[in-house]
Every structure is written in C-alpha cells, then in structure tokens.
Amino acid sequence: MTDQIRSSHDGGVAVLTIDAPATRNALTLTLSAQLAEAVARAEADESVHALVITGAPPAFCAGADLDILAGAREDGLRAVYDGFLSVARCSLPTIAAVGGAAVGAGLNLALAADVRIVGAKAKFVARFLDLGIHPGGGMTWMIQRLVGPQKAAAMTLFGEVVGAEAAVEAGLALRLAEGDLVEAARELAQPAVDAPRDVLLATKRTLRHTASLTDHSAAVDAEIAPQLKSLTGPAFAERLDRLKARISGR
Hints:
By secondary structure, this protein is of the alpha/beta class. The protein has ten helices and nine strands. This is Enoyl-CoA hydratase. It comes from Amycolatopsis coloradensis.
C-alpha cells in the first residue's frame, strides 16, 4: 500500500488521514507536501466548513521520518514543517482526532489544530531531546500556550509522556471521546458546518488576532467591524426571520 494522505469531503467536513501504517504515519517530505495540498484544497472548497486531521490506527503520527532528519538542513526541515504548518495556518476551524501516539513532529501536528480530541490510546510525546535534537516547528511556543510553562517544561525537558486522560486534565485535549473518534470530531464540527462560512472564517481570524491583545477595549474594536458586516448579511436576516417565526408560533 502506498503511503498517502487520504482525503474525504462530506457533510461540510474535510477529513484528512495520514495513512502510512508501516512507519506509524511518520511524515516524509512527500506526505508533508500532500498534507499541505489537501489542506489548501479544503480551504478552496466552499462547501467545507471544518477540517479534521487524523492518523490511520494505531498511531496518530510518529513524527518526521528519521532518515530525512538525519540529512536535513534548513530547507529540508522547513519542508517537513510545511505539512503541520498548513494546519496551523488554515483559515478553517481545525480538529485533531488523536487516537494513538503523537510524537515529535506528530505532536506539532496535533498542537497545530484549533482543538484536539483523543481516544483512550492517545499519548503526546515530545521526544526531541531523547533523539538528541532541539525542538522545532514552533513546538515550544505552541505547547506553552496550551498547557503553561511548567507542564511544557515537563514534556519538553524531562520527556513526560501525556496520556489521554492527563491530556484532557492539562488542557492539551478538549475531551476523551468514546466510540469512533472521527465521528466524534464530526459531531464537534457540526455547529461550524451549520454556521455561515464567511462569518465562521472571519471569527477564526478574529480569535487569532485577539489572542495577542492585552486590552479589552482593543478586542472590542477588533470585533466591531466584522460584527457589523455580519449584521447586514443575508444569513443573519434569514435566521432572524426563522427565529421570529418560531417565537410567534409558540
């Protein structure tokens, strides 16, 4: 079976699956490029409102291919980064459905998503120092923002492996899903599917912008223009009419 990024677009959700079972879904240059291309296709498809990234069982992603790392220079490393950075930069809401080990660059891929949900066998492993290499791809920034400096240090400097329940407790994952993990991700994505796509994408842009602000008034100013635009849009008018009809019909 050829290693590949499997992509399906259905019901407003694009599901991208790293399918490289012999290497536990390790990212090669080819797979990273395919992942970036699949993300771009999902963004360009106006029927898609959310993106789910997962790995073929039993792993989520075992990291970057070790042979590539052994000979990598800056261009090679940035080519490996392209896959998970495409998820980090994605304009769509993104969910990582982590059913197994997310290691090294695989951890970065999970961290790059807006939200992570986990299966019982999920685990998050930095592993960089264990291999004798420095973290890369923005890992130290992403992990500290999610779990704080102490937990980030435990994972990065002391090699602490974080399992599914501990990930939820630490805020690294939103919830532990029972049953089919991808279906759980689809259920989580449904409100985004139901939302007007332009307002959804504008809201994600605003979340990114206001995350760096320290002043409430600046956040109010950042939100007012896109909110005013949405208030004059057809989606709001249609939904307001339906809401009024339901209220009058009580």
